[in-house]
Amino acid sequence: MSERPLRLGTRGSPLALWQAHDIAERLRAVIAPRIVEIVRIETHGDRIQDQPLSQMGGFGVFTRAIQQALLDGTVDLAVHSLKDLPTIPVPGLALTATPPRGPVGDVLLSEKYERFDDLPQGAVIATSSLRRRAQILNERPDLRLIEMRGNIDTRLRKMREQGIDGMILAEAGLIRLGLGEHIREVLPSRWMLPAVGQGAIGLECRADDAETRHWVEAVNDPDTWARIQAERAMLATLGGGCLVPIGVTSRIVAGTLTLRGTVLSTDGTRRLIDELSGPVEKPLNVGAELAAQLVSAGANSILASDAIDSR
Ligand SMILES: NCc1[nH]cc(CCC(=O)O)c1CC(=O)O
């Protein structure tokens, strides 16, 4: 076994660094006395802060630079927020493990209202995600949605300064940064389905780096792994990437994996939602079959109409 440090690549945002330190601790517990180092890498999404994510040319704006560092050998392990990691495989790299998943939901933050249902007609809500926008408009067509980018701290400040009525963020990020006191309500998964992989951390290695993969597999959580395999198979089969509103929930009860998926038009007027269960040993089948069900119900026409609208 080599004695050089294991270098772990991450974005430099406060949330990314929290996640990287968490992974470093988990690895140190299995890999000691070898040193684990954290290497910060700036991604395209970190550099360009003034454009809507949906217009930044799509896939991998928060992950590609870290994957490149992994391929170059600058780092040995990439730590990603899994929901930012495209499902398209990168030759030479392998998603190797997912530690236990954090909270999966989306939450309302607001200085004025306690609950989503308290929002008055025409209230202004900030979000940078097409998935959140479409699901909010499907539930409440009267609300006004505006773009908001930036780290979580920045967004909280902008909401206060600009008098915005509310904002939707992932619960996991707020909890991890100790900002849980800002959460007013976890939005019901009945209508706000989280992003594929939300709340999970993905650990990616070079496919041929057997030694690192061995250590990284030691911090894997099998239930999280099965759920994210199913969720990502659904997304990959639908082929929507990040430019189309797709949401999902998953659960495992007594060896059965249940996946519920939704596809919407970006304006929220059209929505499909469907559910499928299968053995936890076959997560890829559950995901691909649920996607096929959504396609038979017309998912492709919803996705295609969005592709035309966004031009
Ligand atoms: N780049 C957005 C991003 N990627 C991961 C998280 C939060 C943590 C997670 O959902 O895993 C966030 C912020 C948000 O959506 O509020």
TrEMBL record:
Domain (Porphobilinogen deaminase C-terminal) ranges: 226-294
Record note on cofactor: Binds 1 dipyrromethane group covalently.
Stored Pfam families: Porphobil_deam, Porphobil_deamC
One GO term of the biological process aspect: protoporphyrinogen IX biosynthetic process
SUPFAM superfamilies (alphabetical): Periplasmic binding protein-like II (SSF53850), Porphobilinogen deaminase (hydroxymethylbilane synthase), C-terminal domain (SSF54782)
Organism in which the protein naturally occurs: Tuwongella immobilis
One term of GO molecular function: hydroxymethylbilane synthase activity
Name assigned to this protein: Porphobilinogen deaminase
Essential cofactor(s): dipyrromethane
HAMAP family found in the cross-reference section: Porphobil_deam
Top-level class of the enzyme under EC nomenclature: transferase
Pathway: Porphyrin-containing compound metabolism; protoporphyrin-IX biosynthesis; coproporphyrinogen-III from 5-aminolevulinate: step 2/4
Modification S-(dipyrrolylmethanemethyl)cysteine, positions: C242
